[in-house]
Fold this protein.
Amino acid sequence: MTARRHSRVLGIDFGTSNSAAALVDDEGFLRVIPLEAHSPSMPTALFFPAEGDHIAYGTDAMQTYLRGAQEQDPGGRLMRAIKSLLGSKLMDEQTVVNGQLMGFFDIVVLFFKELKARSERHLGFEVRAAMLGRPVHFVDDHADRDALAQATLERAARAAGFESVSFELEPIAAAFDFERRVDRDTTVLVVDIGGGTSDFTVIQLGPDRQKNANRAADVLATTGTHIGGTDFDRLLNLGCVMPHLGLGHTGPSGREVPSSVFFDLSTWHLIHHAYSRKSLAQATELWRSYTDRRLHERLMDVLRERQGHQILAHVEEAKISCSMSSAPADIDLDCVEPGLTAALTPEHMRALLAQQVGTVVQCAKACVERAASGSAAIDVVYLTGGSSALTPLVDALNLAFPGASLVKGDRFGGVAAGLAWAGFAAGQQVQHQETSEMLL
Protein backbone atom coordinates (compact mmCIF):
# COMPACT_ATOMS: atom_id res chain seq x y z
CA MET A 1 0.00 0.00 0.00
CA THR A 2 1.39 3.43 -0.94
CA ALA A 3 1.85 6.29 1.46
CA ARG A 4 -0.86 8.17 -0.46
CA ARG A 5 -3.32 5.39 0.20
CA HIS A 6 -2.35 5.28 3.85
CA SER A 7 -3.45 8.91 4.19
CA ARG A 8 -6.91 8.06 2.80
CA VAL A 9 -8.62 6.80 5.92
CA LEU A 10 -12.40 6.67 6.03
CA GLY A 11 -13.81 7.68 9.40
CA ILE A 12 -16.85 5.49 10.14
CA ASP A 13 -19.33 6.08 12.92
CA PHE A 14 -21.23 2.78 12.93
CA GLY A 15 -24.13 3.61 15.21
CA THR A 16 -26.98 1.72 16.78
CA SER A 17 -29.58 3.97 15.15
CA ASN A 18 -27.62 5.92 12.51
CA SER A 19 -24.25 5.67 10.77
CA ALA A 20 -22.05 8.32 9.17
CA ALA A 21 -18.73 8.56 7.33
CA ALA A 22 -16.16 11.25 6.48
CA LEU A 23 -12.64 11.51 5.10
CA VAL A 24 -9.88 14.11 5.18
CA ASP A 25 -8.39 14.18 1.68
CA ASP A 26 -4.75 14.43 0.64
CA GLU A 27 -4.95 18.24 0.74
CA GLY A 28 -6.20 18.22 4.33
CA PHE A 29 -9.84 19.09 3.61
CA LEU A 30 -12.66 17.33 5.43
CA ARG A 31 -15.06 15.62 3.05
CA VAL A 32 -18.32 14.63 4.71
CA ILE A 33 -19.91 11.69 2.87
CA PRO A 34 -23.59 12.16 1.93
CA LEU A 35 -24.56 8.54 2.54
CA GLU A 36 -28.09 9.47 1.51
CA ALA A 37 -29.33 12.36 -0.61
CA HIS A 38 -28.11 15.55 1.06
CA SER A 39 -27.73 13.75 4.40
CA PRO A 40 -24.42 12.98 6.16
CA SER A 41 -25.95 9.99 7.94
CA MET A 42 -28.19 7.04 7.25
CA PRO A 43 -30.26 4.81 9.55
CA THR A 44 -28.37 1.64 10.45
CA ALA A 45 -31.08 -0.50 8.89
CA LEU A 46 -31.45 -3.19 6.22
CA PHE A 47 -34.62 -4.56 4.65
CA PHE A 48 -34.68 -7.95 2.96
CA PRO A 49 -37.75 -8.19 0.66
CA ALA A 50 -39.83 -11.35 0.58
CA GLU A 51 -39.36 -11.53 -3.18
CA GLY A 52 -36.26 -10.68 -5.19
CA ASP A 53 -32.73 -10.16 -3.95
CA HIS A 54 -32.53 -6.36 -3.79
CA ILE A 55 -31.60 -5.35 -0.23
CA ALA A 56 -32.70 -1.88 0.87
CA TYR A 57 -30.53 0.15 3.23
CA GLY A 58 -30.98 3.17 5.49
CA THR A 59 -34.07 5.33 5.04
CA ASP A 60 -35.09 3.25 2.03
CA ALA A 61 -35.11 0.15 4.24
CA MET A 62 -37.31 1.83 6.85
CA GLN A 63 -39.72 3.33 4.30
CA THR A 64 -40.01 0.12 2.30
CA TYR A 65 -40.87 -1.86 5.40
CA LEU A 66 -43.30 0.72 6.80
CA ARG A 67 -44.97 1.15 3.40
CA GLY A 68 -45.59 -2.59 3.26
CA ALA A 69 -46.98 -2.56 6.79
CA GLN A 70 -49.38 0.26 5.93
CA GLU A 71 -50.56 -1.69 2.89
CA GLN A 72 -51.15 -4.76 5.07
CA ASP A 73 -48.28 -6.53 3.34
CA PRO A 74 -45.49 -6.85 5.92
CA GLY A 75 -43.51 -9.26 3.78
CA GLY A 76 -39.75 -9.22 4.18
CA ARG A 77 -37.47 -8.67 7.15
CA LEU A 78 -36.31 -5.39 8.63
CA MET A 79 -33.07 -5.39 10.61
CA ARG A 80 -32.24 -2.40 12.81
CA ALA A 81 -30.03 -1.74 15.86
CA ILE A 82 -27.72 -4.58 14.79
CA LYS A 83 -24.84 -2.91 16.65
CA SER A 84 -26.60 -3.92 19.87
CA LEU A 85 -25.71 -7.54 19.13
CA LEU A 86 -21.95 -6.94 19.26
CA GLY A 87 -20.36 -8.73 22.18
CA SER A 88 -23.30 -11.13 22.54
CA LYS A 89 -23.62 -14.77 21.54
CA LEU A 90 -26.28 -13.79 19.01
CA MET A 91 -23.64 -12.33 16.71
CA ASP A 92 -22.40 -15.85 15.91
CA GLU A 93 -25.90 -17.21 15.44
CA GLN A 94 -28.16 -17.28 12.40
CA THR A 95 -31.61 -15.89 11.82
CA VAL A 96 -34.29 -16.69 9.26
CA VAL A 97 -34.44 -14.09 6.50
CA ASN A 98 -37.30 -14.85 4.13
CA GLY A 99 -37.04 -18.57 4.61
CA GLN A 100 -33.24 -18.76 4.52
CA LEU A 101 -30.70 -18.79 7.30
CA MET A 102 -28.30 -15.84 7.48
CA GLY A 103 -25.74 -15.03 10.17
CA PHE A 104 -26.06 -11.78 12.10
CA PHE A 105 -22.35 -11.22 11.44
CA ASP A 106 -22.97 -11.49 7.68
CA ILE A 107 -25.71 -8.87 8.00
CA VAL A 108 -23.23 -6.46 9.63
CA VAL A 109 -20.77 -7.16 6.80
CA LEU A 110 -23.45 -6.35 4.21
CA PHE A 111 -24.09 -2.98 5.86
CA PHE A 112 -20.35 -2.17 5.93
CA LYS A 113 -20.02 -3.11 2.26
CA GLU A 114 -22.88 -0.77 1.36
CA LEU A 115 -21.42 2.08 3.44
CA LYS A 116 -18.02 1.56 1.81
CA ALA A 117 -19.51 1.48 -1.69
CA ARG A 118 -21.53 4.67 -1.15
CA SER A 119 -18.49 6.45 0.24
CA GLU A 120 -16.29 5.41 -2.69
CA ARG A 121 -18.91 6.49 -5.25
CA HIS A 122 -18.96 9.95 -3.68
CA LEU A 123 -15.18 10.23 -3.31
CA GLY A 124 -14.35 8.82 -6.71
CA PHE A 125 -11.62 6.51 -5.45
CA GLU A 126 -11.25 3.30 -3.47
CA VAL A 127 -10.68 3.47 0.27
CA ARG A 128 -8.92 0.56 1.94
CA ALA A 129 -8.30 1.97 5.43
CA ALA A 130 -10.90 2.73 8.09
CA MET A 131 -10.89 4.48 11.45
CA LEU A 132 -13.87 3.08 13.34
CA GLY A 133 -15.51 4.67 16.31
CA ARG A 134 -16.30 2.59 19.35
CA PRO A 135 -18.13 3.38 22.59
CA VAL A 136 -16.24 3.52 25.85
CA HIS A 137 -18.02 0.25 26.71
CA PHE A 138 -19.71 -1.98 24.16
CA VAL A 139 -20.80 -4.05 27.15
CA ASP A 140 -20.89 -2.64 30.69
CA ASP A 141 -18.68 -4.34 33.30
CA HIS A 142 -17.63 -7.24 31.08
CA ALA A 143 -14.11 -6.81 29.64
CA ASP A 144 -14.08 -10.08 27.69
CA ARG A 145 -17.34 -9.35 25.89
CA ASP A 146 -16.23 -5.78 25.26
CA ALA A 147 -13.01 -7.02 23.60
CA LEU A 148 -15.05 -9.53 21.59
CA ALA A 149 -17.33 -6.75 20.33
CA GLN A 150 -14.40 -4.70 19.00
CA ALA A 151 -12.78 -7.78 17.45
CA THR A 152 -16.06 -8.69 15.75
CA LEU A 153 -16.46 -5.16 14.41
CA GLU A 154 -12.91 -5.22 13.03
CA ARG A 155 -13.52 -8.63 11.45
CA ALA A 156 -16.69 -7.33 9.78
CA ALA A 157 -14.91 -4.24 8.41
CA ARG A 158 -12.11 -6.40 6.97
CA ALA A 159 -14.66 -8.80 5.46
CA ALA A 160 -16.25 -5.77 3.77
CA GLY A 161 -12.95 -4.91 2.05
CA PHE A 162 -10.98 -2.68 4.43
CA GLU A 163 -7.37 -3.83 4.64
CA SER A 164 -6.40 -1.57 7.55
CA VAL A 165 -8.71 -1.00 10.52
CA SER A 166 -8.07 1.23 13.55
CA PHE A 167 -10.27 2.39 16.42
CA GLU A 168 -10.87 5.57 18.39
CA LEU A 169 -13.30 6.15 21.24
CA GLU A 170 -16.38 7.95 19.92
CA PRO A 171 -16.38 10.80 22.49
CA ILE A 172 -12.69 11.46 21.80
CA ALA A 173 -13.42 11.58 18.07
CA ALA A 174 -16.22 14.08 18.73
CA ALA A 175 -13.72 16.18 20.71
CA PHE A 176 -11.31 16.25 17.76
CA ASP A 177 -14.12 17.59 15.56
CA PHE A 178 -15.04 20.27 18.11
CA GLU A 179 -11.38 21.23 18.50
CA ARG A 180 -11.37 22.71 14.96
CA ARG A 181 -13.57 25.50 16.40
CA VAL A 182 -11.61 26.15 19.61
CA ASP A 183 -9.36 29.24 19.66
CA ARG A 184 -7.71 28.73 23.08
CA ASP A 185 -6.93 25.96 25.54
CA THR A 186 -10.26 24.58 26.74
CA THR A 187 -11.18 21.71 29.06
CA VAL A 188 -14.23 19.98 27.62
CA LEU A 189 -16.65 17.33 28.82
CA VAL A 190 -17.79 15.57 25.66
CA VAL A 191 -21.27 14.07 26.03
CA ASP A 192 -21.98 11.60 23.22
CA ILE A 193 -25.51 10.19 23.46
CA GLY A 194 -26.04 7.61 20.75
CA GLY A 195 -28.72 5.09 20.02
CA GLY A 196 -27.28 2.38 22.25
CA THR A 197 -24.66 3.98 24.52
CA SER A 198 -23.84 7.21 26.32
CA ASP A 199 -20.12 8.03 26.40
CA PHE A 200 -18.13 10.77 28.11
CA THR A 201 -14.64 12.18 27.90
CA VAL A 202 -12.95 15.02 29.72
CA ILE A 203 -10.27 16.27 27.36
CA GLN A 204 -8.06 19.32 26.96
CA LEU A 205 -8.35 20.93 23.53
CA GLY A 206 -6.61 23.83 21.84
CA PRO A 207 -5.13 25.07 18.56
CA ASP A 208 -1.58 24.15 19.52
CA ARG A 209 -2.57 20.72 20.81
CA GLN A 210 -3.84 19.69 17.36
CA LYS A 211 -0.25 19.43 16.18
CA ASN A 212 0.56 16.60 18.60
CA ALA A 213 0.33 13.13 17.09
CA ASN A 214 -0.11 11.52 20.50
CA ARG A 215 -3.01 13.06 22.46
CA ALA A 216 -3.03 10.59 25.34
CA ALA A 217 -1.87 13.24 27.82
CA ASP A 218 -4.83 15.46 26.89
CA VAL A 219 -7.44 12.81 27.71
CA LEU A 220 -8.13 13.22 31.43
CA ALA A 221 -10.94 10.67 31.89
CA THR A 222 -13.46 8.51 30.03
CA THR A 223 -16.65 6.80 31.18
CA GLY A 224 -19.64 5.22 29.47
CA THR A 225 -22.89 3.39 30.04
CA HIS A 226 -25.01 1.12 27.87
CA ILE A 227 -27.98 3.51 27.75
CA GLY A 228 -29.01 5.44 24.64
CA GLY A 229 -31.83 6.60 22.41
CA THR A 230 -33.24 3.14 21.76
CA ASP A 231 -33.62 2.67 25.52
CA PHE A 232 -35.58 5.92 25.71
CA ASP A 233 -37.80 4.72 22.85
CA ARG A 234 -38.39 1.43 24.68
CA LEU A 235 -39.40 3.17 27.91
CA LEU A 236 -41.77 5.54 26.13
CA ASN A 237 -43.31 2.67 24.18
CA LEU A 238 -43.83 0.66 27.37
CA GLY A 239 -45.22 3.66 29.23
CA CYS A 240 -47.49 5.12 26.55
CA VAL A 241 -48.39 2.51 23.94
CA MET A 242 -48.18 -0.99 25.36
CA PRO A 243 -50.93 -0.33 27.98
CA HIS A 244 -53.27 -0.06 24.97
CA LEU A 245 -52.33 -3.67 24.19
CA GLY A 246 -52.60 -4.96 27.73
CA LEU A 247 -49.41 -4.08 29.60
CA GLY A 248 -50.33 -3.56 33.25
CA HIS A 249 -53.86 -4.83 32.61
CA THR A 250 -55.31 -6.87 35.46
CA GLY A 251 -57.06 -10.09 34.46
CA PRO A 252 -59.88 -12.11 36.05
CA SER A 253 -57.41 -13.77 38.43
CA GLY A 254 -56.32 -10.43 39.82
CA ARG A 255 -52.87 -10.75 38.22
CA GLU A 256 -51.35 -8.54 35.55
CA VAL A 257 -50.93 -9.82 32.00
CA PRO A 258 -47.44 -11.38 31.54
CA SER A 259 -45.18 -8.68 30.13
CA SER A 260 -42.42 -10.35 28.09
CA VAL A 261 -44.18 -9.87 24.73
CA PHE A 262 -44.51 -6.14 25.40
CA PHE A 263 -40.78 -5.78 26.12
CA ASP A 264 -39.93 -7.58 22.86
CA LEU A 265 -42.29 -5.28 20.93
CA SER A 266 -40.62 -2.23 22.50
CA THR A 267 -36.99 -3.16 21.72
CA TRP A 268 -35.77 -2.55 18.17
CA HIS A 269 -33.55 -5.62 17.83
CA LEU A 270 -35.98 -7.96 19.64
CA ILE A 271 -39.22 -7.13 17.83
CA HIS A 272 -38.95 -10.09 15.45
CA HIS A 273 -38.80 -12.48 18.42
CA ALA A 274 -42.43 -11.55 19.09
CA TYR A 275 -43.41 -12.75 15.61
CA SER A 276 -42.04 -16.28 15.95
CA ARG A 277 -44.43 -19.22 15.89
CA LYS A 278 -43.70 -19.96 19.55
CA SER A 279 -44.29 -16.36 20.65
CA LEU A 280 -47.52 -16.10 18.65
CA ALA A 281 -48.81 -19.28 20.26
CA GLN A 282 -47.97 -17.97 23.73
CA ALA A 283 -49.60 -14.61 22.99
CA THR A 284 -52.74 -16.33 21.72
CA GLU A 285 -53.08 -18.18 25.01
CA LEU A 286 -52.87 -14.91 26.95
CA TRP A 287 -56.57 -14.25 26.31
CA ARG A 288 -57.31 -15.96 29.62
CA SER A 289 -55.28 -13.25 31.39
CA TYR A 290 -57.43 -10.41 30.01
CA THR A 291 -60.61 -8.96 31.45
CA ASP A 292 -60.89 -6.58 28.49
CA ARG A 293 -60.67 -8.86 25.45
CA ARG A 294 -60.40 -5.87 23.10
CA LEU A 295 -56.89 -5.23 24.43
CA HIS A 296 -55.92 -8.80 23.59
CA GLU A 297 -57.37 -8.45 20.09
CA ARG A 298 -55.21 -5.36 19.57
CA LEU A 299 -52.11 -7.26 20.71
CA MET A 300 -52.82 -10.13 18.34
CA ASP A 301 -53.47 -7.75 15.43
CA VAL A 302 -50.10 -6.06 16.05
CA LEU A 303 -48.32 -9.42 16.12
CA ARG A 304 -50.08 -10.93 13.09
CA GLU A 305 -49.65 -7.78 11.01
CA ARG A 306 -46.07 -7.29 12.28
CA GLN A 307 -46.62 -3.67 13.25
CA GLY A 308 -43.99 -3.47 16.02
CA HIS A 309 -41.43 -1.50 14.00
CA GLN A 310 -44.09 0.89 12.73
CA ILE A 311 -45.32 1.59 16.26
CA LEU A 312 -41.79 2.14 17.58
CA ALA A 313 -41.06 4.51 14.67
CA HIS A 314 -44.12 6.57 15.64
CA VAL A 315 -42.95 6.58 19.27
CA GLU A 316 -39.56 7.89 18.14
CA GLU A 317 -41.25 10.62 16.06
CA ALA A 318 -43.38 11.71 19.02
CA LYS A 319 -40.33 11.72 21.31
CA ILE A 320 -38.51 14.08 18.94
CA SER A 321 -41.56 16.32 18.48
CA CYS A 322 -42.30 16.53 22.20
CA SER A 323 -38.65 17.27 23.01
CA MET A 324 -38.18 19.90 20.30
CA SER A 325 -41.45 21.76 20.93
CA SER A 326 -41.81 21.20 24.69
CA ALA A 327 -45.47 20.53 23.89
CA PRO A 328 -47.62 17.37 23.91
CA ALA A 329 -47.36 15.05 20.92
CA ASP A 330 -49.69 12.27 19.81
CA ILE A 331 -48.30 8.82 19.03
CA ASP A 332 -50.11 7.66 15.91
CA LEU A 333 -51.61 4.20 16.48
CA ASP A 334 -53.91 4.18 13.49
CA CYS A 335 -52.14 1.01 12.34
CA VAL A 336 -53.46 -0.71 15.48
CA GLU A 337 -56.98 0.67 15.39
CA PRO A 338 -58.43 3.51 13.29
CA GLY A 339 -58.36 6.76 15.24
CA LEU A 340 -56.34 5.35 18.15
CA THR A 341 -53.59 7.57 19.58
CA ALA A 342 -51.46 7.67 22.70
CA ALA A 343 -50.58 11.02 24.26
CA LEU A 344 -47.03 11.96 25.20
CA THR A 345 -46.61 15.11 27.28
CA PRO A 346 -43.30 16.71 28.31
CA GLU A 347 -44.14 15.94 31.96
CA HIS A 348 -44.91 12.29 31.23
CA MET A 349 -41.78 11.91 29.11
CA ARG A 350 -39.66 13.42 31.88
CA ALA A 351 -41.17 11.01 34.43
CA LEU A 352 -40.80 7.91 32.24
CA LEU A 353 -37.15 8.68 31.45
CA ALA A 354 -36.12 10.04 34.85
CA GLN A 355 -34.26 6.95 36.06
CA GLN A 356 -32.33 6.37 32.84
CA VAL A 357 -31.51 10.07 32.42
CA GLY A 358 -30.31 10.13 36.00
CA THR A 359 -27.99 7.18 35.35
CA VAL A 360 -26.57 8.91 32.27
CA VAL A 361 -25.92 12.15 34.14
CA GLN A 362 -24.29 10.29 37.05
CA CYS A 363 -21.95 8.65 34.54
CA ALA A 364 -21.06 12.11 33.19
CA LYS A 365 -20.40 13.39 36.72
CA ALA A 366 -18.22 10.35 37.42
CA CYS A 367 -16.12 11.24 34.39
CA VAL A 368 -15.58 14.77 35.68
CA GLU A 369 -14.74 13.47 39.15
CA ARG A 370 -12.07 11.16 37.71
CA ALA A 371 -10.60 14.06 35.78
CA ALA A 372 -10.60 16.28 38.86
CA SER A 373 -7.44 14.58 40.09
CA GLY A 374 -5.72 16.53 37.34
CA SER A 375 -7.20 19.77 38.74
CA ALA A 376 -9.32 20.23 35.63
CA ALA A 377 -12.21 22.70 35.67
CA ILE A 378 -14.81 22.06 32.95
CA ASP A 379 -15.13 25.01 30.59
CA VAL A 380 -17.54 23.45 28.07
CA VAL A 381 -20.05 20.61 27.97
CA TYR A 382 -20.12 19.56 24.33
CA LEU A 383 -23.19 17.62 23.18
CA THR A 384 -23.13 15.23 20.24
CA GLY A 385 -24.93 12.06 19.19
CA GLY A 386 -28.43 11.55 17.84
CA SER A 387 -30.12 11.57 21.27
CA SER A 388 -28.19 14.51 22.74
CA ALA A 389 -31.03 16.96 22.04
CA LEU A 390 -33.46 15.21 24.39
CA THR A 391 -34.82 18.03 26.56
CA PRO A 392 -34.92 16.16 29.92
CA LEU A 393 -31.29 15.17 29.41
CA VAL A 394 -30.14 18.65 28.40
CA ASP A 395 -31.91 20.16 31.40
CA ALA A 396 -30.33 17.61 33.75
CA LEU A 397 -26.85 18.32 32.37
CA ASN A 398 -27.34 22.06 32.83
CA LEU A 399 -28.19 21.45 36.47
CA ALA A 400 -25.26 19.09 36.96
CA PHE A 401 -22.65 21.45 35.43
CA PRO A 402 -23.87 25.01 36.06
CA GLY A 403 -20.42 26.56 35.66
CA ALA A 404 -19.80 25.27 32.13
CA SER A 405 -21.04 26.53 28.78
CA LEU A 406 -23.25 24.03 26.99
CA VAL A 407 -22.48 23.72 23.28
CA LYS A 408 -24.61 21.66 20.90
CA GLY A 409 -22.59 20.01 18.15
CA ASP A 410 -23.36 18.08 14.99
CA ARG A 411 -25.56 15.31 16.38
CA PHE A 412 -25.12 12.87 13.50
CA GLY A 413 -21.88 13.84 11.77
CA GLY A 414 -19.55 15.06 14.52
CA VAL A 415 -18.11 11.68 15.51
CA ALA A 416 -17.51 10.65 11.89
CA ALA A 417 -15.73 13.96 11.22
CA GLY A 418 -13.54 13.49 14.28
CA LEU A 419 -12.71 9.95 13.20
CA ALA A 420 -11.72 11.29 9.80
CA TRP A 421 -9.31 13.76 11.42
CA ALA A 422 -7.92 10.99 13.64
CA GLY A 423 -7.50 8.77 10.57
CA PHE A 424 -5.78 11.54 8.66
CA ALA A 425 -3.33 12.14 11.52
CA ALA A 426 -2.58 8.42 11.69
CA GLY A 427 -2.12 8.24 7.93
CA GLN A 428 0.23 11.23 7.96
CA GLN A 429 2.28 9.58 10.66
CA VAL A 430 2.58 6.38 8.60
CA GLN A 431 3.51 8.42 5.56
CA HIS A 432 6.22 10.25 7.53
CA GLN A 433 7.60 6.95 8.80
CA GLU A 434 7.70 5.44 5.33
CA THR A 435 9.42 8.53 3.94
CA SER A 436 12.01 8.39 6.71
CA GLU A 437 12.69 4.73 6.01
CA MET A 438 13.18 5.45 2.32
CA LEU A 439 15.81 8.09 3.14
CA LEU A 440 17.82 5.75 5.35
